[in-house]
């Protein structure tokens, strides 16, 4: 009973305190737990199962484009990290350093990888000799460490899980193409599977990856109007190749530098799922990513035949390819409903003695709470239909929310006013100078999220300095 | 041509220099590469794909027994590692220490996990209150670090990949059962999937895991007669629970300590696959674990219709559920054959203009080199049959080799003579005292591999000291 009470206790309303609501959902949906290791999280079964589904789906899509998985060491010798100037400047201040192995001090410090460009470059330098060795299209699934000062579960932690793809190509064109291909893959994945609409674009020089020639990004908008960088794809040109001496002999027997890319997506997407789709009853998971898509909850389960029928329905749904389980625990139905809602299970199926008499069950959809009374023989088809509709409508709803919170500003007063009072994206023109980005950051704590591929002409001048505009930019406060 | 030559060059014969043969296979089958990080390896696509298949198969078997996956931090604060006395003594001398985060020295050193008992205990201590919270049957897939002095690819490296299961139970009986259940799962996996026969048994106190009440092991025999510990399962009793204060209230409202287990299998099984099944042409992969089970090699591929037919056969085999690819590169057939053999692809299918005229292809089996001429319409069924037979016979052959290299010794002269001259397992009686294990290690560099569950009575006295015997033990030199 004590535990039931704990779960049924309302979580903080997202309209009252969004940050506290987020923390409550993470905790009560049992996605992750705190540990004795400061800034690092323990990902619990309900959270990790989401990550496994993300992995499975991304990995399948990667492999369809020719990606091969590998595994590189987790340590980077200091001298290796130092090889590319911009890269080391970007990462050295936030890495964890290993100085001792067993009882001995190391001759050279090793950092725990914050990202693995330098390791892949070192590897490619040894592996690539001829144009026949190209392209290399490698990826690894691993954890990385960045010594952040302030941390939040899934969104920013000292250690997080991700995949990092690292490719080497014969030509600049091929590298550019791969960079864009992977950005599109991420965007499609977010929209089709996570039901999260994204803006595709390029980062400004200020915001690009340390060592990249160009960084492309997908940006999404959370329910509270803050932006989340959701996946990035970097084109390195031949910068790293020159720093690491990665050359191949082309068909004319000439030595050439390779052109490289890298791209990554992380466990922060679990945070995005919470903040895009969640509500005041907890998590709401899009059916395609939900580890459990439907739960059958028996009503008056001690009555004869009820548990058996619940189990029978579960088996029928399972046979139809639906990820389903029965909740046959001895908790009350009301408690089970609250739990199913907190955990974001897309559909629940209620079935009691009266339903059985009538040969029917009740389907309840998590996001809209719509209910359907369905004959047993139509149950599997109807559940699948509800899941499909829910997946589609969750994306539409998120897109409508994003669009309703995307504003335009054509002068600086309007820009500041909007950023300060209307959480969301602000589209505005920009002159291309870093000074304006710095001023905007200083004035209203917003950053350039991206220069979208789909440019619009909103005015002729930079919203900040009034000089001639070069690009339309999405601005926003971000996680 | 230069590259062709490099590949076709014979590898060292396993009978001349087994260690060099192993290194050659690892390199030429492109399983892993050396890195600038001393003692750490880069697992290449061909090696990592084997690991992915091991993961997929083990993970499925785990989940069938109720295992849930989680992810714990990679760092362990020194004070946490120190909590269980035997455990810290076992691991502290071989861990990597992080002392700095970014530019700051840490207040407390963190070690990179060599294994995660302490982290799971810390987590369980927070999570477990009531008997309703039990059992916890968690597992994680990750990498761990042990600062080894001497390293060898897959067999012993400073960082390696593994899974580590950590469970907590209400009773000692349940913990014991889970320990044995997982050992049996590992044994079945090795035999059914990797075609590696194993001896199941218990480790002596000298060889058991640091902090365990009992360690169970599966031991396999490599082609050179050396043993390989292939998977272990530990019963901790309530030792860790007492050190970490992990208690629950039972149904009578009494505080009780939990009982715990852990169990793991690592990337060293890729080394086992090489050393159990490989031959002087390279790797030989059991069909059930092979990332590519069959390769179609067109003969005289420039002749009209040959490449098309090869691709058609590949599609037919793919449709039959076989993992297959066409080798349509511009290398010579002889080179492609050598490559297929080096990489251990179980079956190759040769098809040239004459074959096409006759409506047939040639199947060649990797391990026995048996060839079958098969009509196109029977190809898929025959390939599947060959794969099934090969899987079965590889296990039988490995078991016959293991049995032929398992000896009995009933006195110490015979024991030393056998260990020194006949590589393999030696079964002999043991008094139960560590002194005899130490003396044997000193005299002939052999260790007790396990006290097998299937005990035999070989004599009444210890093979070493002549005192009354307590157990029959498998002895051997080991990797």
Automatic annotation (TrEMBL), chains A, B:
Any single Pfam family the record assigns to this protein: ProRS-C_1
GO molecular function list: ATP binding; catalytic activity, acting on a protein; proline-tRNA ligase activity; transferase activity
Gene3D superfamilies: Anticodon-binding domain, Bira Bifunctional Protein, Domain 2, C-terminal domain of ProRS
Catalytic activity: tRNA(Pro) + L-proline + ATP = L-prolyl-tRNA(Pro) + AMP + diphosphate
Residue span(s) of domain Aminoacyl-transfer RNA synthetases class-II family profile: 45-286
InterPro entries according to UniProt: aa-tRNA-synt_IIb, aa-tRNA-synth_II, aa-tRNA-synth_II/BPL/LPL, Anticodon-bd, Anticodon-bd_dom_sf, Pro-tRNA-ligase_IIa, Pro-tRNA-ligase_IIa_arc-type, Pro-tRNA_ligase_II_C
Principal location class: cytoplasm
Single GO BP term: prolyl-tRNA aminoacylation
Keywords in alphabetical order: Aminoacyl-tRNA synthetase, ATP-binding, Cytoplasm, Ligase, Nucleotide-binding, Protein biosynthesis
Localisation per UniProt entry: Cytoplasm
EC main group: ligase
Function: Catalyzes the attachment of proline to tRNA(Pro) in a two-step reaction: proline is first activated by ATP to form Pro-AMP and then transferred to the acceptor end of tRNA(Pro).
Matching HAMAP family: Pro_tRNA_synth_type3 (MF_01571)
Domain notes from UniProt: Consists of three domains: the N-terminal catalytic domain, the anticodon-binding domain and the C-terminal extension.
Subunit note: Homodimer.
Name of the protein described by the UniProt record: Proline--tRNA ligase
Lineage: Bacteria, Bacillati, Bacillota, Clostridia, Lachnospirales
Gene this chain is encoded by: proS
